């Protein structure tokens, strides 16, 4: 068991870093780091002897940048020219960095950006290279843009096969490479695009996928939260089956798998349409322990008057032996559970809109 837990909270106006011990009862927060910059992505990279914090921050004056810290946020370093940049000839400029995730190999980090592209680093986030075959994919001219923009917001490297990566964007759907980025294919069979006309709601691509997750011990199984629908795939995205029965709403943004239990998954349902807050305005996390066959409501300690949403990356789990779960809301509050979702309490409040939370034992 690690004696320290780190929680990174990215908002529209900066980053806050919380630290606690393994019990996670008392938290101390520092911030804002990157004051008044949008932070849509962050990562606690606990590989190696020295943990590294990575942040994708966007300045209204200087644009997006990947920052790194090897001293838990006491100081930050930037890569010259921004680290994540399109090569000459692509006629594109990075607007935001929506995702930062580690790959299975030492030193590898992936970044997902707006406009929709995936970049790969082999030096722990100091330099990045564009996944050119995905950028040049023939579907790209027809990808739409969700309300939040067109971006690769989910990247899932296969834990055992460095050549396999699954990625998702709004409104384009799920794509996967099995040859190290040489080619990418759409994997959306069975995912409904409810906003399309009847008879056209199951296209090859164009779905508005909000988030995907999977457990490292069962990499062939994926869980997906869609714009209207919650799904599971047992064949690494080749086909998808609805698991939304039993939930109070099919709409939502985050979906998180338990780090120690591959059949346990968590969602935060909200109303669709123009009421983007939870059903009955009650903040509730819903958990399935049987891979989505049944669901149970978790609300002990959560408010019954909650008229805000939880965004796609604003819910996460740490990797302590007894897992902690966290979510941040658009009212600037962060809630935590140190007992795997059974009870919750607010650990920080009055921050700007929370866009991303990431936690790890170090």
What's the short version?
1% of the residues lie in helices and 39% in strands.
Kindly describe this structure.
This is Exo-alpha-sialidase. This protein has one helix at 132-135, and strands spanning 5-11, 14-20, 28-33, 38-45, 52-59, 63-69, 77-78, 96-102, 109-114, 117-121, 129-130, 151-157, 165-170, 173-177, 185-186, 209-213, 222-226, 230-233, 241-242, 252-257, 265-269, 285-288, 296-298, 315-317, 325-328, 334-337, 345-348, 354-361. The protein is mainly β and 362 residues long. The N and C termini lie close together (9 Å). The mean pLDDT is 95.
Q: What amount of the residues lies in strands?
A: 35-45%
Nearest-angstrom radius of gyration?
A: 19 Å
Tell me the number of strands. Answer: 28
- Whole-Å distance between the termini? 9 Å
Helix count, per DSSP? 1
Shape call: globular
Main beta sheet strand tally, sense and closure: 4 strands, antiparallel
**Which range best describes the helical content: under 10%, 10-25%, 25-40%, 40-55%, 55-70% or over 70%?**
under 10%
The low-confidence runs, each spanning 5 or more residues with pLDDT under 50, are none
* SSE class: mainly beta
Strand order of the largest sheet: 3-2-1-28
Overall mean pLDDT: 95
What are the secondary-structure elements, in order, as H or E? EEEEEEEEEEEHEEEEEEEEEEEEEEEEE
What are the SSEs and their pairings?
Blueprint: E1 5-11, E2 14-20, E3 28-33, E4 38-45, E5 52-59, E6 63-69, E7 77-78, E8 96-102, E9 109-114, E10 117-121, E11 129-130, H1 132-135, E12 151-157, E13 165-170, E14 173-177, E15 185-186, E16 209-213, E17 222-226, E18 230-233, E19 241-242, E20 252-257, E21 265-269, E22 285-288, E23 296-298, E24 315-317, E25 325-328, E26 334-337, E27 345-348, E28 354-361
Antiparallel strand pairs: 1-2, 1-28, 2-3, 4-5, 5-6, 6-7, 8-9, 9-10, 10-11, 12-13, 13-14, 14-15, 16-17, 17-18, 18-19, 20-21, 21-22, 22-23, 24-25, 25-26, 26-27
């Amino acid at each position: 068991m690690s004696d320290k837990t780190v929680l990174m909270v990215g908002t529209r106006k900066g980053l806050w870093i919380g630290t606690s011990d393994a019990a996670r009862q008392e938290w101390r927060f520092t911030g804002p780091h990157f004051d008044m910059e949008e932070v849509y992505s962050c990562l606690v990279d606990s590989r190696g002897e020295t943990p590294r914090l990575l942040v994708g921050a966007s300045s209204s004056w200087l644009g997006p940048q990947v920052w790194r810290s090897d001293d838990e946020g006491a100081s930050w370093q930037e890569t010259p020219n921004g680290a994540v940049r399109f090569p000459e000839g692509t006629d594109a400029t990075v607007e935001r960095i929506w995702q930062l995730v580690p790959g299975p190999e030492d030193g590898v980090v992936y970044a997902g950006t707006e406009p929709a592209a995936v970049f790969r680093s082999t030096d722990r986030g100091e330099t990045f290279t564009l996944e050119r075959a995905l950028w040049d994919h023939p579907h790209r001219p027809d990808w739409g843009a969700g309300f939040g923009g067109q971006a690769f917001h989910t990247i899932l490297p296969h834990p055992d096969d460095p050549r396999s990566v699954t990625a998702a964007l709004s409104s384009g759907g799920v794509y996967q490479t099995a040859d190290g980025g040489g080619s990418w294919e759409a994997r959306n069979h069975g995912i409904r695009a409810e906003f399309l006309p009847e008879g056209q709601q199951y296209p090859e691509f164009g779905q508005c996928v909000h988030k995907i997750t999977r457990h490292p011990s069962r990499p062939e199984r994926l869980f997906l939260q869609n714009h209207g629908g919650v799904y599971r795939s047992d064949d690494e995205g080749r086909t998808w089956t609805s698991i939304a029965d039993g939930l109070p709403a099919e709409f939502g943004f985050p979906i998180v798998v338990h780090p120690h239990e591959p059949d346990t998954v968590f969602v935060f349902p909200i109303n669709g349409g123009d009421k983007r807050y939870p059903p009955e305005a009650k903040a509730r996390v819903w958990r399935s322990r049987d891979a989505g066959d049944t669901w149970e409501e978790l609300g002990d300690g959560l408010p019954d008057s909650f008229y805000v949403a939880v965004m796609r990356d604003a819910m996460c789990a740490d990797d302590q032996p007894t897992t902690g779960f966290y979510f941040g809301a658009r009212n600037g509050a962060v809630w935590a559970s140190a007992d795997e979702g059974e009870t919750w309490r607010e650990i920080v409040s009055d921050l700007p809109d929370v866009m991303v939370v990431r936690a790890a034992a170090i």
